[in-house]
Amino acid sequence: MEPDLFMLYRQMLRSRLFEEAVMELWNEGRISGEMHLAIGEEAICPGVCTQLRDGDALALDHRGTPPLVMRGVSLVLLLKEFLGSPDGLCRGWGGHMHLFAPERLTASSGIVGAAGPTAVGFALAHQHLRAGAVAVAFFGDGAANQGMLMEAMNLASAWKLPAIFVCKDNQWAITTRSASVTGGDLVARAASFGMPAVEVDGMDAVAVWKTAATAIARARTGEGPSFIKGCCLRSEGHFLGDPLVRVARHPISEITEIAPPLIKAVGKFSGTTLAARAESLMKITELIGTTVKEQYLVKDDPLKRLRDTLGAQKKECEQIEEQCRREILQAVEDALPGR
Amino acid sequence: MREMSFAGAIEDALAQAMAKDSRIVVMGEDVHMLRVNLFARFGKDRVRSTPISEAAFLGAAVAAAMAGLKPVAEIMMVDFIAVAVDALLNHAAKLERFSGGNWKAPVVVRTACGGGYGDGGQHEQCLWGWLAHIPGLAVVVPSTPADAGALMLSALEHDGPVVYLEHKLLADYWLDYLGAGGRKSVSFDVPAAGAKGPVPDQWESVPWGKAVIRKDGSDLTIASLGVSVHRASEAAEDLAKEGIAAEVIDLRSVAPLDIEAISDSVAKTARLMVVDEDYKEFGLSGEIAAQLLERGLSFRYGRVCTEDTVPYARHLEDEALPSRGRIVQAARTLMSQRKP
Fold it and tell me: Is A145 in Cβ contact with B51 (below 8 Å)?
């Protein structure tokens, strides 16, 4: 089976443009609190979400906007929710981390790892009530170290539940490099629960789609859960205003603020050895270096990759791009008339 | 005397304690960034970044405390403690009793709490009443920079488990991290006296479980803690203009609870209002009333608390959290009732 590339491209673009609009509204101060965007994850979500049908369930993390966009939730309702409107998807009570769409069996959570048990519960209900339906959990590599997520994978395997665990691996756990706090390999870890566990190129929407097709078919036919991990990017940091991204983008103003207390602390008489202090400073420098690299040197982009694949079909692509742009503009206008 | 921010005071007091006692180890998610100054000075072995595995590292911190370390385990936000609460509820809090008084777990759990910046109900809870409900667990909530530093020392000196709650409206870096995110386009109602203030040159602990009177008054007692102390003090100024003299008590500690201080004040005023940003039902506000009744006091009673899940939308949140306006209104109602 081959995916419809134009359909994938459309969904990825809708997600990207929608989140860019959200970023603008957040910068204007119209959206409160944190904002976790999924820019850089666009190959993974549509690779899975475009194969879901009525009755299927989604358990989302704090980056849950794109799957809702792709599942056809009203963009205006989503925007109004982010704006804190009483007419929003959750009447202004949830915000972007706590989005709920009962008619699509979609629940999100700001508690890292919670998507695991949620997907297992949805899958259990499916086993009793909706044979053939599946439940998908989206989570990050940081969440993979939460006990409840590992327990959920075990339960899904033991009960042969129609669940698909999708790990969006951006190599970061907030501002910690995941590799520095993770033992072993996540794919091998999932496989050890007795389910098919596959690593896929998380920047390649077509590859994700094909891998997800196998996992979804397996779940639909009652053969049990699967695990998919794809590496992706986190262009906008853990959340908008991520301290490392800020240093990378505004080095002078940010370092002027961070350096004085840091230099003072390093120079204190009591503390660890000079070598250990130097090691700490090196680690911070390394993290900033990695962030700078991600911000300025990594040219990979899941959207651009698919666009390049579709290169020859310029006219169709441009038509999709124009339609998506208009759709997002209209949604913003409807949510916030006359902005 | 020096001038310091609330967060700066915590860090300064913690650094002073860490320099003196090598058994103090900070552990939690992202602490190499969040505590970058401590990380640079004390190194990666004493400022340990953890995976997002609260159940594992909080459980480990409790046992490490049993085995001689003095861990300061950081749960980024108190909401996330739910994932790991077993370590406190069934282990740290029970140890002294289970061991017949022979073993204790001197662990400090440092965690951010509170709302007022529009992050929603999974990130803005207080939960101190919920935690203080557990026998064997101490819970402290500073409201000024001076208390923030001193209470950190008190918590480190305490021989059992302590939850140290740091309100995000007072801790500038948390508010920037989670609320502003570098934006100039948003603003927050930050109580100035709580965010910045005088602190001693050398940190000393404060007596364990002692409240302080922030403002004297004879008509009405307002017992509160954290950001709500500042809201109550502002409300007391409004009430003074109406000729009502409110006494504002800053509890500083939920457990142990300084019921003596509240009782002394209520014996004088015969009117008590509890202002509590934590949930209203089955919590601190009801507990204070019950303990005073047990002592045989007669008094009029009112409370201003958070009554439901904290809403995401800022305008709904403003209505949900205890505010100057709500406190003034509740005080007027209380004053309109005849003394018992």
Answer: yes
Q: Which residue has the tokens 């963009």?
A: A75
Q: Is the dihedral of CA A267, A271, A273, A277 positive or negative?
A: negative
For B239-297, the pLDDT digits (tens) are 999 999 999 999 999 999 999 999 999 999 999 999 999 999 999 999 999 999 999 99
Query: How far apart are alpha carbons B214 and B310 in whole angstroms?
Result: 27
Which residues make beta-bridge pairs with B25? Answer: B71
Place of tokens 């934006």: B183
Pairing of strands A100-101, A106-108: antiparallel
* Residues whose CB is less than 8 angstroms from the CB of residue A12 and which lie 6 or more positions away in sequence, other chains included: A42, A43, A46, A205, A302, A303, A306
User: Any idea which residues of B carry the catalytic annotation?
Assistant: 123
Interface of A with B in 301-320 (CB under 8 A): none
A36: amino acid identity, one letter? H
Strands B220-224 and B271-279: parallel
**Per-residue pLDDT tens listing for chain A (339 residues):** 899 999 999 999 999 999 999 999 999 999 999 999 999 999 999 999 999 999 999 999 999 999 999 999 999 999 999 999 999 999 999 999 999 999 999 999 999 999 999 999 999 999 999 999 999 999 999 999 999 999 999 999 999 999 999 999 999 999 999 999 999 999 999 999 999 999 999 999 999 999 999 999 999 999 999 999 999 999 999 999 999 999 999 999 999 999 999 999 999 989 999 999 999 999 999 999 999 999 999 989 999 999 999 988 999 999 999 999 999 999 999 999 988
Q: Residue B165 and residue B284: Cα distance in Å, rounded?
A: 15
Eight-class DSSP state of A229: E
Domain edges within chain B? 2-199, 212-335
Q: Find out whether A224 and A195 touch, Cβ atoms under 8 Å.
A: yes
Cα separations in angstroms, A230 against A177, A197, A201, A209, B216? 16, 11, 5, 11, 62
How many C-beta atoms surround the C-beta of residue A203 within 10 A? 23
DSSP B220: E
Asked if B49's CB is within 8 angstroms of A246's CB, the reply is no
Alpha carbon distance B178, B312 (integer Å): 13
Question: Residues A117, A118, A119, A120: what is their CA dihedral angle, to the nearest 10 degrees?
Answer: 50
Place of tokens 């103090």: B24
Sorted by sequence, the CB contacts under 8 Å of residue A258 that are 6+ apart come out as: A247, B36
CATH number of B212-335: 3.40.50.920
| Residues B139/B105, Cβ–Cβ less than 8 Å | no
- For residue A192, give how far its alpha carbon lies from the nearest alpha carbon of chain B (Å): 19
Contact A241 B55 (CB under 8 A): no
Do the two domains B2-199 and B212-335 of this chain adopt the same fold?
yes
Pair A140, A173: CB distance under 8 Å: yes
Q: Which residues in chain B touch residue A90, judged by CB atoms under 8 angstroms apart? A: 312
Find the CB nearest B183 among A27, A258, A261.
A27
Q: Which residues contact B179 (CB under 8 A, 6 or more apart)?
A: A32, A33, B117, B118, B119, B168, B186, B188
Residues of A in contact with B45 (CB under 8 A): 272, 276
* Spatial contact of B203 and B149, defined as CB atoms under 8 Å apart: yes
Whether pTM > 0.95 for this model: the answer is: yes
With respect to CATH, is domain B2-199 assigned 3.40.50.970?
yes
